[in-house]
Amino acid sequence: MARPRGELTPPSSRKDLRLSTLADAFFALHRPGAPFVLPNAWDAASALVFEYAGFAAIGTSSAATSWSLGYADGERVEPEELFAALGRIVRVTKVPVTADIEAGFGTTTEAAVRSVERSIAAGVVGANLEDFDSHADEMISLEAHAERIRAVKARSAELGVRFFVNARTDILLQELGPAATRVDRTIERLRAYAAAGADGVFAPGATDAETIRRIAAAVDAPLNVLAAVRTPPVAELAKLGVARVSVGGAPMRRTLGVLREIAHELRDRGTFGFAHEPSLPYAELNAMFASDG
């Protein structure tokens, strides 16, 4: 089957060599039983705050990035705007960046390949690729998603790019099908995706220790979990065999919660107490963006 080629060429420039180094560093972070926390940014400023806090890599959140660009989550954002936003994040950061590209802006193999090509062009070293079609509100078949994974891995290899595919299934998150079978069906899908070449697997909605342990033990690939209020702490996740912990859109929602408090103070009291709360100084923020990135 012919695959879309885009405008990409195999790495040859100094920029491409830097991307290769970042990709190697990102792959090396994934060690089952020694999880790293991947904060999820939504724009250049949030990415820099996470980087300056010392995180070894940064992810994006599809929901938070979509909201920041003026769209609802669920592949409603214009792809051109999303990939431009990814490029801005990569431009200002020095650590590896991985992207949430949802289902790849289309359920076909060609759509997934094209979205991964555009991710590579933006300078990210990996992407989440999920098996839920948000437009049809249904799962992509296991076989079709496995084929998409094989295709994007083959295409990145053709380009000479080491690209981390984090294969995601939404059975638990979307609470799909009989509750008693959800964990088994999650494992079935993640095993198939790992066999198709996925570098890591992602099971958002797995929040209790026993579910996480079962999935980690059953799938031969680094497991990513999505942090929630009930998620065990990182030290316990390590014992359960987790390799990566992401936080999704929660940091942006918390940030916007603070902003809403500011809005209410201005509207209801006409006071400016928010200016005395902890904040990043102007000079510090400006210096972040004045650096070479």
**Count of helical regions:** 12
The CATH topology name reads TIM Barrel
General form: globular
Annotated CATH homologous superfamily = Phosphoenolpyruvate-binding domains
How does the major sheet shape up?
A: 9 strands, parallel
| Uncertain segments | 1-12
Account of the protein in words:
- The protein has 293 residues and is of the alpha/beta class.
- The chain has a single domain, classed as Phosphoenolpyruvate-binding domains (TIM Barrel).
- It has twelve helices and eleven strands.
- It has helices at 14-29, 44-52, 62-68, 79-92, 109-122, 142-158, 171-174, 182-195, 209-218, 234-240, 250-269, 282-290; strands spanning 36-38, 40-41, 58-60, 97-100, 126-130, 132-133, 138-139, 164-168, 200-202, 223-226, 244-246.
- The strands form two sheets. Strands 1-11-10-9-8-5-4-3-2 form a nine-stranded parallel beta sheet, with helices on both faces.
- β4 (97-100), α5 (109-122) and β5 form a beta-alpha-beta unit.
- α2 runs parallel beside α4 (79-92) and α8 (182-195) runs parallel beside α9 (209-218).
- The chain is globular.
Secondary-structure map:
Layout: H1 14-29, E1 36-38, E2 40-41, H2 44-52, E3 58-60, H3 62-68, H4 79-92, E4 97-100, H5 109-122, E5 126-130, E6 132-133, E7 138-139, H6 142-158, E8 164-168, H7 171-174, H8 182-195, E9 200-202, H9 209-218, E10 223-226, H10 234-240, E11 244-246, H11 250-269, H12 282-290
Parallel strand pairs: 1-11, 2-3, 3-4, 4-5, 5-8, 8-9, 9-10, 10-11
Antiparallel strand pairs: 6-7
Descriptive key words:
globular, alpha/beta, 48% helix, 12 helices, disordered N terminus, 293 residues, 9-stranded parallel β-sheet, TIM Barrel
